[in-house]
Amino acid sequence: MAVIRDVMPSFDLLQPNSADEARNILAQRGSDAWVLAGGLDSFDWLKDRIKRPKVVVDLSGVDELRGIRVKSDGVEIGAMTTLTEVAQNPVIRENYGVLADAASMVASPQIRNQGTIGGNLSQDTRCWYYRAGWPCYRAGGNICYADTPEGRNREHAILGADRCVAVNPSDTAPAFIVLDAKFVIRSRKDERVIDAEDYFIGPDVDITRLHVLQPGELFTAVRIPFTWASSRFYFEKIRDRNVWDFPLLNVASAMFVSNGRIDRVRIAVNAAAARPLRLKSVERAVRGMPPDAATGEMAGKRAVQGAVPLQFNAYKIPLMRNLVKRAIGGVEEAKWA
Amino acid sequence: MGLIQWATDPWGLSVPIHIAWFLIWVALIAGIAFLIGHVVYVRYFAKPRQFTADPPTPSETEIPERVARHSIAARTFHWIMAASMLVLLFTAFLPKAGVQFDWVTYHWIAGTVLTASILFHVFHASFWLDFGSIWPDRIDMKDAWHRTRAFFGRPAPLPRRFAKYPLENKLYHGAIMIVGTAVIATGICMMFRIRTIFFTRDPYLLSDMTWGTIYVLHGLAGVGLIALIIVHIYFGVRPEKQPITKSMIFGWMSREFYLDEHDPARWIVSRQQASRTPVASRSED
After folding, report:
1. What DSSP element (H or E) covers A186?
2. Domain span at A17
3. Which of A169, B42, B66, B164 has the smallest set of CB atoms within 10 Å of its CB?
4. Per the domain annotation, does B127 fall within a domain?
C-alpha cells in the first residue's frame, strides 16, 4: 500500500480561543472534525494520509484547558497540560507520585514537552497493521492481521482480545485509574464526568475506538480526588528502549498499609489489553494481607489468569505476573526471583 | 453511495469487506412501510375474502373441537428459533445503531443455537412431519393466479380454501429458508475468524475476496431478515391471524376456524387421529 509520508491532505484548520468555541465547532462538524492536542499521534495519521478529516480543530490556543489547579476536594489537570508539566508539578509529585512517575516515563523529553495529558489518554493504538492503513477490524474491516500464525504480535494483547488484539499504549492511564480520577467530557449540550477506568473501552464494546469520546465531545480535564493522595505508590514501565518507547507493559498501584497489612489498594496494568485493566480480583485478594513476597506471588499469579498468548507475546504473561508482584511488594521484591 | 463497502488489502487488491450499513435502515424502513401499507389496504381497500363453494363439510363427529396444528416439538423449535433469531438481529445491528456492548459472544452463541435448532427441524420435518405440507402445490399456484386477477379487477373463479398452510405462509417459509441458510452458512465460515469453542481460528482459510464475499452475503441476508422478521411479527399479531399464532403456542386451532379457512379435502383431519394424540390431526407440523 502506497503511503505518502510527506504532505498532509488538505483540511480546514480551525483554532478556537476558548473551550466553548471549541465545543461549538466540534458539535457543528461532528465526525468530520479531528481534535488536535499535542499532535504527536495526529500528525502520524495525517501525514500517512490514513485519516483524512475535513476539519482539524487545534486546541493549542485554548488556555483554559491548560494548567494544574488545586481544588478543595482534589486536583484538576487541564486536558492540554503537557506531560512535562504534570511530571514536574510539585503538588502532583508530592501527592500523586505514581502519576508523576508515569508521566515522566512517557516517550522522550521532547515529546513530553509537546504531548498533553488528554492526548496521552486518548491516543490511538500503535498496532502497525492498523496504522499502516490496512482494512483490519479496527479500521472497519473484517480481519486482524496481527492475530494470525504469521502476524507480528510481540507487543499485542494477552487479555481481553476480541477479534482485534491491539493494546492501549498510554502510560498515564493506569496511574489515573489507581488514583480514582474522573475525566470531564463536555459537549455543547452537557458535561459528563466519568471514572477513569470507564473512559476506556475494549473491542468487545467498540472495535474501532479505544475510549468513549464521541464526535462532538471535548475532553476538558482530569479531576483527581485526594482519596489516594500520599498513599504507597508503585509505577513500573517495561519497554524495549528505555530512552524512548511505548510500553510493552506497565503497572501502577496505590495502597494504604496499616499494621503491616494492606488496608486499601488499587492496581492497574496497561498494554496487556485494548484497555487499561484495573485488577479488581487482585485487589480483593490482597486486601488484609501483608505486602510481602508471598502476597506478591499470589497476586501475580491471579493477575494473569485467563491470559491467552499470541504467537510472539507469551513473554508478557510472566512479565505481567512479575510486575504485579512488584507492585504489591515494592521494588525490593525484584530481588526475589 | 455503494451497497458494498470496499477496501484495499495488503496486496493491493480491492476487496469487499461488508455491506454498507445504511442498508440496515433501508430494511427497517421497508419492513415498516410494508406493514403500514398493508394496514391501510386491509382497512380501506380490501374486499371480503371469498372462497369457492363450501366443500362437503365433514360431520361434527369427524372433526374434533380442537384441531391439532403444531406438535410440541415443532412449537419448541419455532420459539427457540425465534428467540435465537431475535438475539442475532439485536446483537448484530444494535452496535451499528450506536448501542455498544459485548455482542460477539452472544451473537455466535445465538447463531449456534439457531443452527442446531434448524438442523433438528430439517431432520424432524423430514421423518416425522408432513414434509410436503409446507411446499406450494399446483392448487396453490392456480389459486394465486386467480386471486391476482381478482385483485386487479379481472374475472377469475373464486379460489379454494387453504390446505394446512396458506400460500403466503409457504412463500414466507421459502424466503426464510433461503435467507436463513445463507446467513447460517456464511456465519459458520465467519466463526473461523473469531475465537470460539468450535474451531481453531484461521483467518487465512480463504482468500480476502472470498472472505469479503462471505461477509457481504452475511450482511445482505442479515438485513433481509430484519424486513422478514418485521413482516412475520406483524402478521402474527394481526387479529384475523391470531388463531394461527395461538396454534403456535397451544398447538391447536378451533374447529370453526379450521372449517372457515381450510379445505378439509386438502388438510384432512379426523377424530380417528385424535385417538393417537391429545388433539386430533393427521399431520403434526
Report:
1. strand A182-186
2. 12-62
3. B42
4. yes
- For residue A308, which residues of chain B lie inside 8 Å, CB to CB? 195
Whether B17 maps to a domain, the answer reads yes
Contact A147 B12 (CB under 8 A): no
A contacts of B209 (beta carbons < 8 Å): none
Per residue in A208-242, pLDDT tens?
999 999 999 999 999 999 999 999 999 999 999 98
The CATH number that applies at residue B19 is: 1.20.950.20
Picking from A132, A135, A206, the nearest residue to B7 by CB comes out as A135
ipTM surpasses cut 0.90: no
Which element (helix H / strand E) includes A36?
strand A33-36
The whole-model pTM stands at 0.84
* A228 Cβ contact list (under 8 Å, min separation 6): A96, A178, A179, A180, A254, A266
Residues spanned by the domain of B167: 4-50+72-252
Q: How many CB pairs below 8 A link A and B? A: 54
Q: Which residues of A touch B104 (CB under 8 A)?
A: 162-163, 204
Task: Identify the bridge partners of residue A298 per DSSP, sorted by sequence position.
Answer: none
Residue A158 within a domain: no
Residue A325 lies in a domain: no
Q: How far is A207 from chain B (nearest CA, A)?
A: 10
